[in-house]
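Lab notebook, page 48
Experiment: co-folding of the full assembly
Goal: obtain a model of how the components sit together before planning crosslinking
Operator: M.T.
Materials (sequences as entered):
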Amino acid sequence: MYNSLSNRRSFIKRMAKLSAVTAAAAMFPGIIFADEQEAAIPNGANINWKKGPCRFCGVGCGILVGVENGKAVAVKGDPNSSVNKGLLCVKGYHQTMCIQSKDRLTHALVKKNGKYVQTSLNEALDIVANKMKETIALHGKDSVAMYTSGQSTIPEGYVASKLMKGAIGTNNLDCNARLCMASAVAGFLTTFGADEPMGCYEDIEYADYFITWGNNMAEMHPVLFSRMLEQKSKRGAKIIDFATRTSRSSTASDKSILFEPQTDLAVANAICYEVIKNGWVNNSFVEKHCNFSKGLINMGYGIEDKYKFKDKPEKINFEAYKEFLKDYSPEKVSKYSKVSVKDIKYLASIYGDPNKKVVSYWCMGMNQHTRGTWMNNLVYNIHLLTGKISQPGNGPFSLTGQPSACGTAREVGTFTHKLPKGVVMNEKHRRLAAKIWKVPYERIPAKPTYHATEMFRAVDRGDIKFIWTQVTNPLVSLPKTSRYRPGMKKDSCFVVVSDVFPTPTSDVADVILPASWHIEKSGLYGNSERRTQHWNKMVEGPGETTPDAWMTIEVAKRMGFSDLFPYSKENHVEEIYEEYTQFHEGAKHGMAPLEVLKRESGVIWPYVDGKSTQWRFNAKYDPACSNGESFHFYGKPDGKAVIWQRPYEPAAESPDKEYPFWLNTGRVIEHWHTGSMTRRIPVLHKAMPNAYVEFHPEDAKSLGIRNGENIKISSRRGACVLPASINERGLPTKGQVFVPFFDENMLINDVTLDAFCPISKEPDYKKCAVKVEKV
Amino acid sequence: MPIKSYLAHAHGGQKEKLINALSELHDCEVTPSENQDILVLVTDTPDDISDDILKKKIEDIDSLKILTLVSGFNNPSN
Ligand code: SF4
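Observation: model returned without errors.
Model output:
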């Protein structure tokens, strides 16, 4: 990447500097080096800066990519993006360095007699289309599946949905956002009837308190965290970290409160108990804008194949809810949550103070939870009881992990039950999709089929006989890969993998399709704050690399669906977006037109009369409010949000005599998810070359474990050997170990459990029981 | 020909002073953090003796609180 810029010596200097920047990012939460990339560019360089979103997380920072002689030579923060105002984190700065990795997938590879043979893309796409047709003819529509991503662009997700649901007529489409965002979606839908946060990042400028629920923002959402730290030093805003592990975020916060895994459910209820007991309820808000409901309990954990669950909501009144909360006094909850009574009361007093503005942030800690939907409901309860919602600086805010978990997975709807507008179960929604797609309405099945975990179980069982994965690496990211890897290897399923680099998933493919990377194609993403971001292709990709959307279209055409996919190769992104936005017309979800998206560094929807709606459901800001009141939760037929009665229930698997430790898994600042890209960025790889297992120092001492010693972590599913880490990056609570999942050489997901939230079907990667042994 | 990178922590509120002091030294390249009292410092000296001398000069700067070495490369002069 830097060959055109300088000689070997300045290259070494640059590497030295990047190492230090990366080290600083790991050591100092929220640290930003704004001028770092630009400083590397020699005077006189003829650089053309092109705007787009960052590839590496749901914050959705705006980037400017410096292109010289057709090559990406630098990245800097886009000063026009209100998300990051010119700032970037360490992953953002280094992102384009991966594209020239030597092992880039540049041509299609087809497995012939057990060996991969380079094949023309045309021939490979013929093979994929023929295989898909043949499988459908032999075994029916529901024997083929697609598994896509929250990193797919909006057009990529849209054509995948149109191919599977509109053209073929199967709901066998799900995506990796099921593994990270499904509980957030189910939480929004059950409480508000409308997905995605009501507020926006500008809340940071107004909030007095940020309460982070199981969310290590310093490492996972670094630019937002740096914006919070700025408000902390400028205005004295306070950050309270509520978590099961002391992380970089905890140390930079004003207060860190630790809880026993799974008991966040009880603590959230205890906060509501205190809010009510102390008279901090915003009565007029609750009377006008809220209903109370309860659902089924003891739902199970989905550990068995073909598990089914359907909640049965039942209306209750405020009195019944108060009665229910009697089990959640701070005194009672303190006993099993290990949060002191004082700290529970402290949290409640922050939410309860009418003069303080509070934003709650969360991401995987609450979503990857066997009661993830409940947990989302419970934090909404706190904001609804106190009326602290949909106002600048006041609101619950569910953050996304992936750059287009919102834009693609949730808005386009690449889940089995979803359509670009609404759900397959709803006849009106199916009719709208059929009309826009120009297909017979009867073709779209009314029943969802497989969510992510069940999809890979179906592959293992032999029910799915063809699967195509795009922009995702499930054999590193799924829970319990110890089952799903051998499942994918079985001859009963033909596996197609589209990717940029080889991964453990492409290792089991029958056909590997060479995908264009982010800046080698045009596209659109949608970030956590409902911001749609467009970019134009910036550089040519190598070999026969091709955008995933175009490969899907080519396969659709080969299967005989040319009339449904009339897009042109040059302009398919724009043509698809124009078609897609018809689904969202109106004040509740109107999307900005392309010409605006091309001009701006992202635009928040609903976009109404040339203006973004920053705070939904608040009549002052949201033109879709029509009930004549200050607030209108129009996602629900009666315009009211729901306060849910949801109890504490234990985790699917808890430590016992044989497996005495909790295992918690997660990420590190240097790496993006399964590491397939960031481990090919030398400076990031060097800074964090392998995974590790974190211990509490007292546990390490009692087991006689020293830093760096190899430790075998095993569960009832599988085992993984990793070096011990004591008092380094993070500090788990006693009785818990933490392992990051980015390292394909140390597959911790062989150990995790595929239990999931029965409502959202999102797996819990944060809690299972393991034993540890020195090896 | 040693090339080294460091994280330099300034005393509270003395980041600008530290930037100026380091910028005056030959063979030093400074990249300050936008939002914290931390600088990235890259030194590029002709030999080990000059590297030692430079390091001593850096450590003598009043506004410097801590200097942490991150990486060291020795690039042969050919
Ligand atoms: S915070 Fe996220 S979006 Fe922003 S630069 Fe870092 S990885 Fe990219």
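Interpretation: The helical segments of chain B are 15-24, 48-59.
Next step: discuss with group before ordering constructs.
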